[in-house]
Amino acid sequence: MEKKKLRRATEIIKNAEYPVVLTGAGISAESGVPTFRGKSGLWKKYDPEAAVSISGFKKDPEPFWDFAQELLLKNDIKPNPGHKALAELESSGIIKTIITQNIDFLHQRAGSQNVLELHGTLNKATCLKCRKKYDWEDLVPVIKAGNIPECDNCKSQKIKPDIVFFGERLPENALNQAWQAAKNSDLMIVIGTSLAVYPVASLPSLTKDNGGKLIYINAASGQQDYLFDLIIKGKAGEVLPEILRMID
């Protein structure tokens, strides 16, 4: 990490009135959450149509639960120093909103309060037949035992996590709030995403068009590097705690 860039990021953040954060899979990968694309991504092992499409789930939920077990239960997934630094920056009143593409609820487990989950969350689930609600922790013992969760009310095995499956629309309320946060922001910090998936990838442009600044923190280059005022190549779990230390 270049100290000069870290000092510049600290200066920009301290001078901003309404900083928001956009996070992607990269920040969670540091906690052991597998990524989806790339040589060792989950899509090399699982068929997305069978595992995470709404039509596939309604036909047979088993492939999804195999996928979910590997995503969050195979390793001991916990918030990393990057998640924790963002939570501290929020609790101190610096960061106003975290917009995330992640479904692993690690931001909330780290202590963040104002989180907009654009792809939903695995933390909650709903029976598609009778609409009974479940918490993730209620389902974990069943999944770990290699079984498909069954609704204790109607006996259906179609208990669907509250995530956005392929073939479903993004949650309108969260998306509208994200648009508004991006427009209101005079600084967006983009972390751990290549900005390849729309409409989420268009959010930084909303801040930029409003005269705001953009900071990019990621281990690799993204698809919109030309937009950013400052690019820091590195892991969020190393960069963010250092920025937090400099701000303090």
Automatic annotation (TrEMBL):
Q: Which residues form the Deacetylase sirtuin-type domain?
A: 1-248
Q: Which residues does the annotation say bind NAD(+)?
A: 24-43, 101-104, 192-194, 218-220, 236
What reaction is this protein's catalytic activity? N(6)-acetyl-L-lysyl-[protein] + NAD(+) + H2O = 2''-O-acetyl-ADP-D-ribose + nicotinamide + L-lysyl-[protein]
What keywords were assigned to this record?
Answer: Cytoplasm, Metal-binding, NAD, Transferase, Zinc
Entries under PROSITE patterns matching the protein? SIRTUIN (PS50305)
EC assignment: the record states: 2.3.1.286
GO MF entries: histone deacetylase activity, NAD-dependent; NAD+ binding; protein-malonyllysine demalonylase activity; protein-succinyllysine desuccinylase activity; zinc ion binding
- Asked whether the keyword Metal-binding is assigned, the reply is yes
- One GO CC annotation, please? cytoplasm
Name the InterPro entries on file: DHS-like_NAD/FAD-binding_dom (IPR029035), NAD-dep_sirtuin_deacylases (IPR050134), Sirtuin (IPR003000), Sirtuin_cat_small_dom_sf (IPR026591), Sirtuin_class_III (IPR027546), Ssirtuin_cat_dom (IPR026590)
Mainly resides where? Answer: cytoplasm
The cofactor binding remark recorded in the entry reads: Binds 1 zinc ion per subunit.
Q: Where is the signal peptide?
A: none
Q: Where in the cell is it found?
A: Cytoplasm
| Zinc among keywords | yes
Which HAMAP family does the annotation name?
Sirtuin_ClassIII
**Name by which UniProt lists this protein:** NAD-dependent protein deacylase
Task: Identify the gene encoding this protein.
Answer: cobB
